[in-house]
Amino acid sequence: MKSPENSSVTAIIPAFRSEKVVIRAIESVLSQSSPVDEIIVVDDASDDRTAQVVRDFAINQPQIRLIVNNRNLGPGQSRNAAWNLATSEYLAFLDADDTWHPKKIELQREWFRANPSEVICGTQHCIIDKDEKRDNVGKPSQFTIKDLLLRNRFTTPSVMLRRDIPLRFDPKLRLSEDYLLWMEIASEFGHVNRINQPLTILHKPEFGAYGLSSKIRAMYFGEMKALTILNQKGHIGLVVLIRSYIWSTLKLARRLPLALFRKLSWKSKH
Question: In this structure, are 190 and 230 located in the same domain?
Answer without folding.
Answer: no
